Amino acid sequence: MLFALNLFGRAVQERDEAFRFSLYWIALEVISVTKGHGVAAKLGNAYSRHPQYALEELEFRAAHNYRQALFHKGIMQSFTARLERLMQCYFYDLLRARLNLPCKSLALNAILAFQTSDAARANIAAQDS
Hints:
Elements: H1 2-13, H2 17-32, H3 37-46, H4 51-56, H5 60-73, H6 81-98, H7 106-128
C-alpha cells in the first residue's frame, strides 16, 4: 500500500502528461491489487455495484481507453483536468475500500460537480447569445 501511495504522490507532482497518467494508472493497479478491467471491478465493488457501473456511470471507461491507447498503441492524448481529477478520486475510493472504510463516492460526486459546472456554463453562454 505504501508503494501505491508513493506512486500517487509522484503522479501529482509530475509535469509530463503521459508519465503522470502512467503513475496514476499503476497506483490504481497496485492499490486494487489487480490490473486492467480488474480495477473497474474493484471500483464497482467499492460502490457496492458491478464493474459496468464503474465503466459507465463513473466514467472509468475513459481512463481505461486512455490507458489502452497510451500503453498498447503509443498514442498520447490530452490528459484533461477532468480525467486527472477522476483518476485521483478513483484512487481514494479504492484506498478506502482497501482499508475497509465506507465509500465516500468521491468519483461520483466529482462527476456530478462537473455536470453542474457544465450546465451552468451552458446556461451562461445561452444568456449571452
